[in-house]
Amino acid sequence: MVNLILFGPPGSGKGTQAKKLVEKYNFFHISTGDMFRYEMGNNTPLGQKAKEYITAGNLVPDSLVIEMLKQRVIQNKGVYGFIFDGFPRTIPQADALDKLMNSLGQSINKLVALDVDDQEIINRLQERAKIEGRSDDANVETVKNRIEVYKQNTTPVYDYYSNFNKSAKVNGLGSLDEVFDRICTELEGL
Ligand code: B4P
User: Fold this and answer.
1) pLDDT reported for residue 71
2) Domain 2-184, CATH number (from 3.40.50.300, 3.40.50.2300, 3.30.1330.50, 1.10.10.10)
3) Does residue 114 line the site of ligand 1, with CB under 6 A?
4) Ligand 1 centroid from CA 45, angstroms
């Protein structure tokens, strides 16, 4: 079983590349962003709580994210491998994920980070705002806050897995296929 974290700033291509990885390797895809959008779309109590954070470009509190993630993993523990997209985004989330995987007799094999500069992120998310109308993409100040939150709270997760020689950075610029090939190269030999 291979378990992968797909990492990177907002709009770096995590969700886009996760779909391609699922097609090729049959991973079970868990996107905490997609899960929250589902909850918000259905106006559930969790969705209502998450909405104020997401709309402002802030992280949803760890306790809410971790509980939601745990349930999804445990419900699907027999799969070939998980691809975690947008999780973990903080050190407490990384700790919780490691403990959860340990309790299932598994571990994270690799973290692949997509490297994309701030201006490209802003351009991509402005384009996506026109197509998908996501509340957290439309306002440039909100996008800038998401980038700042990523730098402050989320980049330490890259170093956390570097300590175990599990982190790798790939260039996230270029065509979808070019980025995909770079990620696949990192997965060789796992
Ligand atoms: P996410 O859903 O994870 O949002 P994201 O980072 O914008 O998605 P992603 O990075 O996958 O988008 P993609 O590049 O595929 O999270 C949304 C919010 O939920 C967070 O801000 C937070 O509030 C909350 N949340 C989620 N998880 C959380 C957690 N663990 N803890 C706390 N809060 C959490 O797509 C971007 C665009 O770029 C697309 O339009 C795509 O077409 C385009 N694109 C992709 N690759 C490209 C390429 N190579 N070239 C050109 N364009 C490309």
Assistant:
1) 97
2) 3.40.50.300
3) no
4) 23
